[in-house]
Amino acid sequence: MARAPRNEVRLDAPKGLRSSVRSIRRAPASRDRFGRFTEWIARAMGTPWFLLGLTLFVILWIAWNTYGPLALRFDSVDIGFVALTLVLSLQASYAAPLILLAQNRQDDRDRVQIEQDRQRSERNLADTEYLAREVVALRLALKDMASKDFIRAELRSLLEELDRDRTDQPEHDGPERRRG
């Protein structure tokens, strides 16, 4: 059996994909674990509960260091709660990169999803084109087929012709033949 040349258009099969599928390497387990951790932190920091907890923490810090026993205070109201400022700055300095890492991971997932969607739509387009060609081929094949009305008309005309032939022939097989 001869094979069709590669550049020949085949109408009896869907078109192939126009691009190759790239394999995606999995990240090592430690990077993936750290990435999941950064996403968890970023997700947690974006909740109302985190903001409520941080607000309560700051209120308690300020209240303790303002109204608590003087010997147990660890941050002075006189110098503007420097330790609280440092703690919040430290939290913000870690939060920003962790949120960016989580966003980068989401961007990578979105990129992979977009590529898969593009490939899926490319396959759907190829399948749709194939089905359209098949429908056209079926319509052309049905166009050449005899319809029910055509066959009935032909059968009627043949019956009429047979009736005419029978009435036109003299009856040679009449009673004389039966006697003999």
UniProtKB/TrEMBL annotation:
Keywords recorded for this protein, A-Z: Membrane, Transmembrane, Transmembrane helix
Transmembrane regions: 40-64, 79-101
Keyword DNA repair belongs to the record: no
Name assigned to this protein: Putative membrane protein
